[in-house]
Design brief:
It is a single chain. The chain has 143 residues and is of the alpha/beta class. 36% of the residues lie in helices and 17% in strands. It has one domain: Response regulator (Rossmann fold, 3-Layer(aba) Sandwich). The chain has 5 helices and 5 strands, in the order E-H-E-H-E-H-E-H-E-H. Helix 3 links the parallel strand 3 and strand 4. The protein is globular, with a radius of gyration of 14 Å. The N and C termini lie far apart (29 Å).
């Protein structure tokens, strides 16, 4: 799969997908590598977004539990120490209050169709990716 290409859970061409309704709130970046997480956070902040950072599942759920209504979007890496990004997403989807928060997977691994369906990601970016493409996707979900 070409780098930076988004894959939607429906598998439909972008022209056939419903237009998402942008949400107000912060972007939660869940990434264990400090340089990647901090770089994404800085770039998003430079574009006017509020960003919360989490290096692991504990930090991610601390943010989600303390301000679930204040999080508009999650950028989630799958390869995390301890609890994987897939486990975080499964827990999120099982919680009615958190399941409506759109999630973009940002991973070094390309999506498998079964994985993408189970994760119900709104988009999937394979590292390395172009920030302008990620930013265009973020703008669809965050007001």
């Amino acid at each position: 799969m070409p780098q930076g290409v988004t894959v939607t859970t429906q598998g439909l061409p972008e022209s056939f997908q419903p237009v998402p309704r942008p949400r107000r709130g912060a972007i939660l970046v869940v990434e264990d590598r400090d340089d990647v997480r901090q770089g994404l956070a800085q770039l998003l902040e430079l574009h006017g977004y509020i960003v919360f950072e989490a290096a692991d599942a504990i930090e991610a759920f601390t943010h989600l539990e303390s301000c679930s209504n204040g999080i508009a979007l999650i950028l989630l890496d799958l390869a995390l120490p301890g609890c994987s990004g897939s486990e975080i997403r499964a827990t999120q989807l099982a919680n009615a209050q958190l399941s409506e928060i759109p999630t973009i997977i940002v991973s070094a691994y390309g999506p498998e169709i079964a994985d993408n369906s189970a994760l119900q990601a709104v988009a999937w970016f394979e590292k390395p990716f172009r920030f302008d493409q990620l930013l265009a996707e973020v703008r669809k979900y965050v007001a």
